[in-house]
Design a protein that fits this description.
Blueprint (H helix, E strand, L loop, with lengths): L34 E6 L4 E6 L12 E5 L1 E3 L3 E3 L6 E9 L2 E7 L9 E4 L2 E8 L6 E5 L5 H4 L14 H6 L7 E4 L11 H5 L3 E6 L22 E5 L1 H8 L4 E4 L1 H11 L10 E5 L14 E5 L6 H10 L1 H13 L10 E4 L1
Parallel strand pairs: 1-17, 3-12, 3-14, 4-11, 14-16
Antiparallel strand pairs: 1-2, 5-6, 6-7, 7-10, 8-9, 9-10, 12-13, 13-15, 16-17
Helix pairs in contact: 6-7
Length: about 325
Amino acid sequence: MFLGYQKEMRTSDFDYDLPDELIAQRPPERRGESRMMVIDRASGTIEHRQFAEFPDFVSKNDLLVMNDTRVVAARFFSNDGTREILRVDMISPTRWKCLVRPGKRFKVGRTVDIGKSTGTVVEICEEGGERIIEFDHAPNDDAYGHLALPPYIDRPDGAEDRDRYQTVYAREEGAIAAPTAGLHFPEEMIASLPHTFVTLHVGIGTFRPVSVEDVNNHHMHSERYSLGTEAVEIIQNAERVFSVGTTVVRVLEACGKIVGKSGLQPQQGETDIFIYPPYDFQVVDSLLTNFHLPKSTLLMLVSALAGKELMLEAYRKAVEERYRFFSYGDCMLII
């Protein structure tokens, strides 16, 4: 679903230079110790603050909306270590839709052994090349599953990631990747702020770059979401809605794109909403988010909120000031 206006917008318009050493490979020692860039849309100013100061920007009539999805161990390796699969959808406990590597070793009829389970490739999906793999019995996630850390984190997942690549409020299993803006929050800060939860299971699109130059021609992936009755009531009564992460933006704007905040209804389903400049936000007033990859749909989304030129200037300053980028990095508050 394309919700940017149909005008020429190029993927290369959302590019920037990033030194590799600024890509965070590990989280800070403790949650809440990150830096926070603050962008004021009204004044066009950019400030350098600490995430510990985030509560200073939230009033008693405001509301934080957070994504309570829980990351599952969805990455598996064959017993001989030569093949890798990423489960993107569990059709049933023994029938999985997977990204695979290397693809040439996953032709229809080929098998892969994970622990004591044997999977057979039964179908190759036409659109994305994913494989449908049928197992004789379900592989043990706890024993053989790994977290699918983003490819820019140049190391295997470890014991630390089982805790830190998960928000403290994660409860609804189903995500492949973490809603990373929420990783900054320690429990005590959440308890001190007005908040509610929605669910969006971060999916396969996280791993797929924009491959077309004309943004209008990009096909956005779908992700499963849920917006509950209690959350709707609280959101409608909030003075300002602070979205904790772009995944929350996708839920709220998908549900409110026509009816606005006052017309929100409890619902669940899938959304393929694609937000890029210019876009008229219906529900979200402010956004806390991490720094995003060049030429990505997420950089396009935050540019729709803050304006492309101001956002690219913010990213230039983030590089100059040596902010830490991406999932385990620092954050940005757009007000």
